[in-house]
Amino acid sequence: MSTQGSFSSAEKAAVYRAIYERRDMRHFTGGEVEAETLQRMLSAAHAAPSVGLMQPWRFIRISDSQLREALYQQVQQERLATAEALGERSNEFMQLKVEGIRDCAECLVVSLMGRRETHIFGRRTMPHMDIASTACAIQNLWLAARAEGLGMGWVSLFEPSAMRSLLAMPADTEPLAILCLGPVAEFYPSPMLEQQHWAQRHSLATVLMDNRWHDELE
Amino acid sequence: MSTQGSFSSAEKAAVYRAIYERRDMRHFTGGEVEAETLQRMLSAAHAAPSVGLMQPWRFIRISDSQLREALYQQVQQERLATAEALGERSNEFMQLKVEGIRDCAECLVVSLMGRRETHIFGRRTMPHMDIASTACAIQNLWLAARAEGLGMGWVSLFEPSAMRSLLAMPADTEPLAILCLGPVAEFYPSPMLEQQHWAQRHSLATVLMDNRWHDELE
To answer: Which residue of A36, A58, A117, A216 is the best one to mutate when testing the B interface, meaning the one whose CB has the most B CBs within 10 A?
Structure first.
């Protein structure tokens, strides 16, 4: 396959469309994801860039329904702990739907691999580049899912050590995400947290600077 | 703009094409990036998901050539420090081209904003989700660049504290990337580090597991 050609206007528009129509979904309609489609999306994730070609991502498919329920319970626990930590925004937070674990067709846990300390290229001063690489893989999966007409949500409301215990993960792994994936009734027209007035979108200009730090939002 | 429609086969193929043909580029041919195109790609980055809609990313465009040279020097210093830390792979590493700072049309520094501690949603147990969100934004930018026919490279060979000094960044910011962006003669047919035998691509099967940890690669 040649990787040299330029993209037609239509191809370019499709890439931007996926980027703009991707949503962090929490509402799912059950159903299923065909094995072939799941494989195609995971291949897209695995085609992500990684620091020093480290490929630090690992995907654990949760097909066991008891295990899925245990994940759900972990998230409920962390949801309450988060509400408490939020103080005055606690009630507001508790009104939000924060996950779709019980309703989604597929549930995946994504983690950093163990034994990462030998990977020094691009990580000597910035060891957290392994997290960045794994997030790039998840973003690929997200965009591929949108193109396939499937919704995806990233849940980070859990205690990593509890997750390690549940899935028999070594101490030097680092779980980063519970991904909920599958058919949805509709994609939110704008981010759900924006619709629910949890936070406002900044304008692009406010996150851009020239040559030195001058953050308008601070 | 409706966000409901399904993607046509052609649109779907275009999204996968961008995912598979995106490369971490270190070879650039100078030139320039039109202001409108840069804006379009940065808007795509800013359309990324973020934990609790935090939008933690900040982009600093380096248009000052002396500043760009100072970035280059910082990377050279870290390149030597990395080579030393790599021990027996030191010579092999020093053969690799690791950045295109002097040759790319546009150079951007990406950082986490400061004052992140009040953002607790999705971060109480996992504060590093801000890094993950910013990496999703960078991956959007990368894919948009490929669709625009432009190359991009992510350089993480620098000392964050030196970068903060150089760009007058507050102590609680966290620089994550020097992005090199612009026209390229060609996109690598496969990842450069694979072509140079720095590392091999794993098969997808080796990074997938079912229900519990069993990492074939360990």
So the answer is: A58
What pLDDT, in 10s, does the model give residues A148-186? 999 999 999 999 999 999 999 999 999 999 999 999 999
Provide the edge-to-edge strand list for the sheet that holds B57-61.
A208-210, B57-61, B106-112, B174-182, B151-155
SS3 A24: strand
d(CA A70, CA B88): 45
Q: Is the pTM of this model over 0.80?
A: yes
Task: Say yes or no for a CB contact (<8 Å) between A60 and B210.
Answer: yes
Q: Which residues lie closer than 8 Å to A104 by C-beta, 6 or more apart?
A: A28, A30, A151, A153, A180, A181, A182
Which residues in chain A touch residue B177, judged by CB atoms under 8 angstroms apart? Answer: 132
With contacts defined as CB-CB under 8 Å, which chain A residues touch B58? 207-209, 215
Superfamily covering domain B24-184: NADH Oxidase (3.40.109.10)
Cβ neighbours of B194 in A, within 8 Å: 53
What backbone torsions phi and psi does residue B8 show, to the nearest 5 degrees?
-70, 165
Helices and strands per DSSP (H, E), number in chain A: 7, 5
pLDDT tens sequence across A98-127? 999 999 999 999 999 999 999 999 999 999
Are A19 and B44 in contact by the 8 Å Cβ rule? The answer is yes
Nearest to B15 by CA among A64, A148, A183, A189: A148
Judge whether A109 and A167 are in contact, CB under 8 Å. Answer: yes
